[in-house]
Design brief:
The complex is a heterodimer of chains A (579) and B (350).
Chain A lengths: L1 H40 L12 H8 L1 H34 L5 H6 L3 H4 L2 H12 L8 H4 L11 H25 L3 H9 L4 H30 L2 H6 L6 H11 L3 H25 L20 H30 E3 L3 E4 L15 H30 L4 H12 L6 H12 L3 E3 L6 E3 L9 H11 L1 H14 L3 H8 L4 H30 L4 H4 L7 H10 L3 H37 L5
Antiparallel strand pairs in A: 1-2, 3-4
Helix pairs in contact in A: 1-13, 1-16, 1-17, 3-8, 3-10, 3-14, 6-8, 6-14, 8-10, 8-19, 10-13, 10-19, 12-13, 14-24, 15-16, 15-18, 15-19, 15-21, 19-21, 21-24, 23-24
Chain B lengths: L1 H26 L7 E7 L6 H11 L3 E7 L2 H10 L8 E6 H9 L3 E2 L23 E13 H6 L20 E4 L5 H13 L3 H12 L2 E5 L4 H7 L5 E5 H9 L4 E4 L7 E9 L6 H10 L2 H10 L19 H4 L5 H6 L1 H13 L6
Parallel strand pairs in B: 1-2, 1-3, 6-7, 6-8
Antiparallel strand pairs in B: 3-10, 4-10, 5-8, 5-9, 5-10
The chains are: A mainly alpha (579), B alpha/beta (350).
Chain lengths: 579, 350
């Protein structure tokens, strides 16, 4: 008996170790190893001669660098501040108040993330550009004002559109898991609402808050889509990379700038690691989920706030829809549905659209499984601490890799038929090269490109579930995978679904990595939007964007429906007596 | 546990397996007897089907897979794939980009059938040229007539006009560091004034009038078409196209002559060069498809009887300013570094 018990236990641990190493290998091959050839390039010239730190020194000596760096920093700090603020208030409204029309606000919470970046730019230009509705005061009917879209202001608006939903996702999952008992205790001690907020709410979500700062900062620090279209002459590091790689095919310099871009995320990682040392779990086996009470003032303020945010987002979307129907903006405003017939524009008709939908579905399914399992192994167990730390670190890296750098690295790695072994005249077949030129490479690139936010969202949730569950299972000799399937997954289902829908909507709109990777036979719609816009068919580009937005919205509705049923079930897990 | 493990493994296997099978399912075509080639191109998306019609008619057994992107992306993709090239043929990419690719040893010289019809300045002079041109694209200004009138601006006719104080803040231009069109304008100015120093002085003067340097060749013209800025320094085909779309644009070909580059074809060097790739290159300079090119481009590499497209100057070849493509390619890095030093760093928002 004793022997068997021990065997079971050691089998359990062995299995865990194998799984952790397996995940470690996958993560290394998909994140770190593809980046190596590109990073090696930063130490060589364009003919692959080793030149040491010369690129780095050249770049620093370039007077525009200091300016780009300061600009990137300004953009990132401003965006982070507003995105987290807006994301927090919106998330608070959704989780902790009796916000009227909550279902509606919840469904539309990520709406600005559904809009392809190029379309956001089209929308912003139609509203705030020199001929924009607001700039010209709705065709001169009211006095207009010019916000000076091109430059800092435009970048900030565009970035907030892109970043605040990301903060929202993390904060919603942080705020969702809370313990009613703490608030009840505070109430019986007659604590003021402010005090409750400062001593219970904020400390409970500090991890999520910290992460959303970290995510928004890095996203806006590294994004090049928005600055490229509305940035005007306001240079940032990411557009510097674009100029080097796409404008001048100078991969070495592009790689060098990418390394500069990685610095803040490595710093953020170190700070983050320090920060969470004293983190305690929130949800124990005895927790009771929070039940918001009616509060007319708070609820109406929240209603006004959320409405204002949505009006701006829906306003931009409406102008995209309008753009898809108008003949020549702003000179011939006659409407037509012509532009939804794509066959006369890109030649591929609706095919890219369906390819994109399938790509996004695959990404959502496989990405979610991979991300959640990785987060679970990293977060919940004790063995192989160093390797788990490494997995964690690798998982936080993708967010700092600009899409076009990821795309190029993937070409360099996945298009390599074989590796040569150093010092030996021997070639090893690269099994990953089979993926190149298939849908698989697109799905993989998407999974990795959006990995960090999903990973952090998953760890935030897992952290809040008490390790007590694992400990009790262990002492009851229940193998960990049973606990995983029966407790962890059901408890985390809302977050899991959230991750799936995040993967889906991002894959629907992503351009930067995919534009280098899509095979000739699998055109995707986000790229055809860029091509249609290139060819001057703004209206068709807007029409395709409209389709994409509606698809994501449709998926979101399915998600809403499923998650409502699911959260009923998962709350049963937290408090079985309640039903 | 087994369940879980096989689930994870299963997912991984399905993940890799689904992709190609989904592919085959989408396309239904299995390699079969049909030869297939992959063509990288930067030609305009909406023109490609028209061009390809005659190829599809004459060579029904060759399947052509087109990858279409902007010049910069296609070139970056070509260079990144160097170790295991995916493209068989490049069709209609800037000659200056092909010079870079050739420099890295990615191109196989090939003399397509009918090469003698190609004008000498439109091809690599080598016996087996690394690149063979099909048309030329030239810089031009897009001037929005309605906005110019509203702002009381006269229509600029020359490069010199653009430096007049009245245009301050009304001109947008492609950024030469991110767009080939931007670079050809800059390179042309540097080659066509008495000395390079004069060229830089001109660009200094132009810079004081520029509102924005944009990250694409066509964008300045698009911005002009939407009235965002009255004047965009872009390229001829773009300007003429927008005029024909009904936008209030006047296409201005500057008096001193336009900067230009050639859109050219090339054969990609790889272990197995498909005969179909050479067939494609032969076809791509044939008189029949050249007539199609001539419907959108004023200047084609193979002379055709197609009347000049509406909106171009009557003697387009005369419009070409002096330009040494090789010089522009060799000096590119130096010129862009100088350009960035002068105009890029100080472009903080005003």
């Amino acid at each position: 008996m004793y022997f068997k018990k021990n065997l079971n236990k050691s089998f359990n641990i062995l299995l865990l170790k194998i799984l952790i190493i397996f995940v470690f290998i996958l993560v290394s091959f998909f994140i770190i190893i593809p980046l190596l050839p590109l990073f090696l390039k930063s130490f060589s010239d364009n003919k692959n001669n080793f030149i040491g730190l010369e690129n780095f020194i050249n770049y620093i000596q370039n007077p525009s660098l200091t300016q780009s760096f300061i600009n990137s920093l300004k953009v990132a700090l401003t965006t982070t501040f507003f995105s987290v603020l807006i994301g927090f208030i919106y998330a608070y409204a959704l989780t902790r108040t009796r916000l009227p029309f909550k279902k509606f606000f919840n469904t539309f919470s990520l709406f600005s993330l559904y809009i392809p970046p190029l379309a956001v730019a089209i929308g912003l230009i139609y509203i705030f550009g020199k001929q924009g509705l607001i700039t010209q005061g709705f065709f001169g009917t009211i006095p207009g004002f010019d916000i000076n879209l091109y430059g800092f202001n435009g970048i900030i608006i565009g970035e907030i559109f892109y970043c605040f939903p990301q903060a929202l996702i993390i904060l919603v999952s942080a705020l969702n898991l809370s313990d009613q008992r703490l608030y009840e205790a505070a109430e019986s001690l007659k604590a003021s609402p402010l005090r409750k907020f400062l001593t219970i709410t904020l400390p409970n979500i500090k991890y999520g808050l910290m992460n959303s700062f970290f995510i928004c900062f890095i996203l806006s620090f590294t994004d090049f889509g928005v600055p490229k279209v509305v940035g005007g002459n306001f240079n940032v590091l990411a557009t510097d990379i674009y100029k080097q790689v796409v404008g001048q095919q100078n991969f070495a310099m592009g790689a060098t700038i990418s390394i500069y871009l990685l610095v803040p995320s490595i710093l953020a990682f170190l700070i983050d690691k320090n920060f969470q040392k004293n983190e305690a779990s929130l949800i124990s086996g005895k927790s009771i989920p929070f039940k918001p009470r009616k509060n007319l003032i708070v609820d109406s303020i929240m209603f006004i706030f959320c409405s204002l945010i949505l009006i701006l987002v829906i306003g931009v979307f409406s102008s995209i829809v309008l753009a898809s129907l108008i003949k020549i903006w702003p000179y011939d405003i006659s409407l037509s549905l012509q532009n939804f017939r794509f066959s006369n524009v890109a030649g591929n008709g609706y095919e890219p659209y369906f390819n994109t939908v399938f790509m996004s579905i695959y990404t959502a399914i496989f990405g979610t499984i991979f991300v959640f399992f990785t987060a679970y192994l990293v977060e919940k167990f004790k063995p192989l601490k160093k390797i788990r730390m490494l997995i964690y670190f690798f998982s936080t890296l993708p967010i700092a890799i600009p899409g076009l750098v990821l795309g190029l690295s993937y070409i360099l790695f996945f298009n390599k038929p074989s590796f040569s072994v150093p010092f030996l005249d021997f070639q090893i077949f690269n099994p990953f090269s089979l993926l190149y030129g298939t849908m698989g490479i697109l799905v993989l690139a998407n999974i990795i490109h959006f990995f960090t936010v999903c990973f952090i969202s998953a760890t935030t949730t897992l952290k809040q579930i008490d390790k007590e569950f694992e400990e009790v299972s262990e002492s009851l000799k229940v193998p960990f995978y049973k606990t995983f399937l029966r407790i962890t997954i059901p408890l985390s289902l809302p977050t899991i679904l959230e991750i799936g829908s995040y993967y889906f909507v991002n894959s629907m709109i992503t351009v930067s990595a995919i534009i280098f990777l899509y095979p000739a036979k699998i055109p995707v719609s986000s790229v055809s939007i860029v091509n249609m816009d290139d060819a001057g068919d703004t209206a068709s580009a807007a029409a395709m964007s409209t389709l994409i937005v509606l698809t994501s919205l449709f998926v979101r509705l399915i998600y809403e429906f499923t998650s409502r049923n699911v959260s009923k079930k998962s709350s049963v897990w937290i408090n079985p007596l309640e039903t | 546990m087994k369940k879980l493990f096989s689930f994870v493994m299963g997912a991984a296997v399905i993940g890799t397996a689904l992709a190609p099978s989904a592919n085959a399912w989408w396309w239904g075509k299995k390699g079969s007897e049909k030869a297939s080639i992959t063509v990288y191109t930067a030609l305009e998306d909406d023109q490609i089907p028209n061009y390809l019609k005659s190829f599809e008619r004459d060579y029904p057994n060759i399947e052509v897979n087109i990858v279409r992107d902007s010049t910069g992306i296609v070139t970056a993709k070509l260079l990144a794939e160097a170790e295991n090239p995916q493209a068989d043929v490049v069709w209609g990419l800037a000659a200056s980009s092909l010079l870079v690719a050739n420099d890295r040893g990615l191109i196989q010289g090939y003399a397509p059938k009918g090469l003698s019809n190609v004008k000498p300045s439109f091809r690599d002079p080598a016996k087996k040229p690394s690149w063979v041109g099909i048309d030329s694209w030239i810089s031009a200004f897009c001037v929005n007539k309605i906005e110019a009138q509203k702002k009381g601006l006269s229509i600029p006719k020359s490069w010199a006009d653009l430096t007049k104080p009245e245009y301050k803040g009304h001109i947008v231009m492609s950024n030469p560091a991110s767009s080939g069109t931007g670079y050809l304008s800059v390179a042309s100015r540097l080659q066509n004034l008495p000395s390079e120093e004069d060229g830089w002085n001109y660009l200094d003067a132009l810079h004081t009038n520029i509102a924005q340097y944009m990250h694409s060749g066509s964008k300045p013209c698009k911005a002009a078409g939407k009235g965002e800025y009255p004047i965009g320094v872009s390229f001829g085909y773009r300007a003429v196209k927008q005029v024909n779309m009904g936008q209030p644009i006047e296409a201005v070909f500057p008096k001193e002559g336009s900067g230009w580059d050639v859109e050219a074809n090339a054969l990609i060097k790889k272990d197995k060069i498909k005969p179909a790739a050479k067939t494609f290159l032969d076809w791509a300079i044939s008189p029949e498809v050249s007539r199609e090119y001539a419907k959108s481009f004023a200047i084609t590499a193979v002379e055709t009887d197609v009347p000049l497209p509406k909106g171009f100057p009557s003697n387009p070849e005369k419009q070409l300013a002096k330009n040494d493509l090789q010089w522009a390619a060799v000096n590119r890095e130096r010129i862009l570094a100088e350009w960035a030093k002068r105009y890029d760093g100080k472009s903080a928002p005003k």
